[in-house]
């Protein structure tokens, strides 16, 4: 590759990153950005756990607050005592897990113009076509939106795994509710694997039943890592008050049971929690 061409690519990479990286966006020199992109992009963090490499990749740009109005069960007194009147620190997150025999992307973010997943994966040297496995926690738009661009499949080589109970639950919903889920699943239908809870998936990942938020909401465990999807939307509030639901929880009673039981399970077994709406970096 010519020197001119390679610098053009650096410039393009820097431009892609600038929209999604807090400090990097303010820098002027593409050269400086190329050298420091891993360090300055505050939407990525990798931890090593149980022989795995687990990378948190934030889909949203900058900070994200969950509006307090989503938690109607929380009293004003409780909200005031936690000092979260202006919103509860949160994120829109995905996780990339490298086990001994598989690299898996858990959820795909919103797939909107300002979504950062693709550019952040690129900064890690991963193109959408490189993704071999996508495991879904559930079918809300902020988790499956990143699988399509318009009607085009973003990860043409990915095998997609989702709970059969989630798929079946969404497909009987009214047309306007299931429109996105139906479109995305249909686009990936040749590579869509519907599992039963308790199944062990490639990479030695166990899919566990954590329903309530959606009909087949799934939590995944591999080694000491527990990916909890949307069990928690407002960590400051719900980690200590798991009986409080966000308005997104479709079946509140089941959601409370799932939240309580998996928080206990993680605590008793010394698991690291990775949550799609925990505040950055979204590990606990
Ligand atoms: Zn969500």
Task: Summarize the topology.
Blueprint (H helix, E strand, L loop, with lengths): L2 H16 L11 H11 L3 E6 L2 E7 L5 E3 L9 H7 L5 E3 L2 E6 L4 E4 L10 H7 L9 E3 L5 H4 L3 E2 L2 E2 L5 E5 H8 L3 H13 L4 E4 L4 E2 L3 E5 L8 E5 L2 E3 L7 H4 L13 H17 L3 E3 L10
Parallel strand pairs: 6-7, 7-10, 10-11, 15-16
Antiparallel strand pairs: 1-2, 2-5, 3-4, 5-6, 8-9, 12-13, 13-14, 14-15
Bound molecules: zinc ion.
What labels would you give this structure?
284 residues; alpha/beta; Metallo-beta-lactamase, Chain A; 2 domains; seven-stranded mixed beta sheet; five-stranded mixed beta sheet; 9 helices; disordered N terminus; binds zinc ion
What does this structure look like?
The protein has nine helices and 16 strands. With 284 residues, it is of the alpha/beta class. It folds into two domains: 36 residues; 229 residues, 4-Layer Sandwich (Metallo-beta-lactamase, Chain A), CATH 3.60.15.10. α1 crosses α2. The longest helix is centred in the last third of the chain and has 17 residues. The radius of gyration is 19 Å and the shape is globular. The relative contact order is 0.15. It binds zinc ion. The site of zinc ion has 6 residues, from α5.
